[in-house]
Design a protein that fits this description.
GMP Synthetase, Chain A, domain 3, SH3 type barrels, globular
Length: about 190
């Protein structure tokens, strides 16, 4: 789920070496929009604590790469961001890292007519995720069989993000500001390319 479209896959292959050299991992790439599309790239440090400067550095590093490869034949906006608190879950390791937290999952192929599920992540084993659903049932689904998945914003998730250094502590200030603004990730937007 890191990429959906062929163009996103080509961009992923081009920018991954640069991300790795900077100690970053690409979480998701999306080409979105109409007349002037937006190329959105989400990155994070594997140990957490990714900030706006990491996004800016990565954006500056890949801009020449994107220009040389000319993946998009029209003007577009480049947006580099962190995944945010209620982050997308795009890799099996994302589910493993957030066991015990609430997630929303959408499947590519419905199970008994149902595509969308919400529940607590209870396990991840070789790409198969188990969710304890709100109605008491369990869902086992392969990450490769999902069309999208994300964490659900809860008090427990906010506390875990603070412990990991991905959010300021309430005593350090800034927490009220985050609550008011919602779960916006750190983002660097560049001018049209």
């Amino acid at each position: 789920m890191i990429t959906i479209k062929a163009i996103e896959e080509r961009i992923l292959k081009a920018v991954t070496p640069e991300a790795e050299s900077m100690g970053l991992e690409v979480v998701r790439i999306r080409m979105m929009g109409g007349r002037t599309p937006t190329l959105q790239i989400m990155v994070e440090k594997s140990e957490g604590g990714t900030d706006v400067e990491d996004c800016a550095s990565f954006s500056r590093a890949i801009s020449p790469l994107l220009d040389v490869h000319d993946f998009v034949d029209a003007k577009y906006h480049l947006e580099v961001s962190t995944p945010g608190i209620d982050r997308p879950l795009t890799r099996a390791k994302d589910f493993a890292a957030w066991i015990g937290h609430l997630a929303k999952v959408e499947l590519q192929i419905p199970i008994e007519g149902r595509r969308r599920f919400q529940g607590e992540i209870t396990s991840e084993n070789n790409g198969v995720v188990t969710l304890q659903l709100d109605d008491g049932l369990e869902l086992e689904a392969e990450v490769d069989g999902m069309s999208k998945a994300s964490l659900v914003l809860t008090e427990e998730l906010i506390s875990a993000a603070q412990e990991m250094g991905d959010l300021p502590d309430a005593e350090q200030g800034g927490f009220d500001e985050i609550e008011e603004e919602g779960d916006e990730p750190d983002t660097i937007e560049e001018d049209e390319r």
